Amino acid sequence: MSSHKLKIGKLKGYVMKRIWIENRATINGWLSIGSAFVAEIMAEQGYDCLTIDMQHGVLGYESAVSMLQAMRASAVFPMIRVPWLSPDAIMSALDAGAYGIVCPMVNTRDDAERLVSYVKYPPAGLRSFGPTRAGLSNVQGYRERADEEIVCFAMIETRQALDALDDIVSVGGLDGIYVGPADLTISLFGSQFPPGFDRTEPEMIDAIRQICDQAHGHGKRAGLHCGTPEYAARAVEWGFDLVTVSNDVRLLSNAARSSLIQALDRINEASPSTSAMPSSY
Q1: How far apart are CA 175 and CA 119, in angstroms?
Q2: How far apart are CA 257 and CA 266, in angstroms?
Q3: Of residues 4, 56, 216, 218, which has the active-site annotation?
Q4: pLDDT, tens digit, for every residue of 36-58?
Q5: Residues 72 and 137: beta-carbon distance below 8 Å
Q6: What pLDDT score does 15 carry?
Q7: Cα–Cα distance, 95 to 84 (Å, whole number)
Q8: Rounded Cα distance, 44 and 240, in Å
Q9: d(Cα 79, Cα 101) in Å, to the nearest integer?
Q10: Is 56 a catalytic site residue?
């Protein structure tokens, strides 16, 4: 796979699929903080796509709309992880201007079929027409282009989904699957392994790679939620088409902690007798 390139230019609905056609993996950022300014900062860093997390993120619908507005000036492809498999959440996210949907806990073929139906307009689906912001923030022809350009990901997070994977990935109109490693680990192994990203257990690596291979076998794309750049690179080597690299909360907390530790180290080096900063006043 060729090296990743940062892209600049006006947002286009087909940008994700164009990158995949070029045989490159897309690099995804993750937004859990309900802030338009945070979204704007992340959008300017050169990610291919950014996903607003309405399932576990600390934000609501109005915050998500503001974040999509802040992201519009960049070349980033806007996606939303909806809270659940529900038509109101999915259709509202699309009407707000999301060009990609990531849906959690898709466990059966029926779940996948319903997901696709909520994303696509008739006759292919059930989506109600009313792209309140999406129609304003994009060039004319949204209705004609939406079904082709919007990217639809089903999250694979349970043993039930893993057992039904061939049925799920055979659903027409589904663009890909997105592995949620934390929930998948809990579902497969309970308390045997702690939940989290960047799995190193051979059993989990086998499961993750199996999901990727099965998706590709049905012509679908595969995405993986990663905690570090190193693991994301490893996932791309396995064949994943989309990798999420950390999130805004972790990036902010890690940078803040690193800055504080460096400051305290230098202060202590300059004044060995100076005690560490008090935790309270």
Answers
A1: 11
A2: 14
A3: 56
A4: 999 999 999 999 999 999 999 99
A5: yes
A6: 79
A7: 17
A8: 24
A9: 6
A10: yes
Least confident of 48-62, 136-150, 258-272: 136-150
Q: Looking at the DSSP assignment, which residues form a beta bridge with residue 81?
A: 53, 102
Distance CA 26, CA 159 (A): 27
CATH of domain 15-270: 3.20.20.60
DSSP the chain: -PPP----S---TTHHHHHHHTT-PEEEEEE-B--HHHHHHHHTTT-SEEEEETTTSB--HHHHHHHHHHHTTSSPEEEEE-SSS-HHHHHHHHHHT-SEEEES---SHHHHHHHHHHHS-TTT--PPS--TTTTTSS-S-HHHHHHHH-EEEEEE-SHHHHHTHHHHHTSTT--EEEE-HHHHHHHHHGGGS---SS--SHHHHHHHHHHHHHHHHTT-EEEEEESSHHHHHHHHHHT-SEEEE--HHHHHHHHHHHHHHHHHHHHHHH-TTPPPPPS--
Q: How many residues does the chain have?
A: 281
Domain ranges of the chain: 15-270
Q: Do 190 and 209 meet the contact criterion of CB atoms below 8 Å apart? A: no
Least confident residue range of 53-62, 134-143, 194-203: 134-143
Is the whole-model pTM more than 0.85? yes
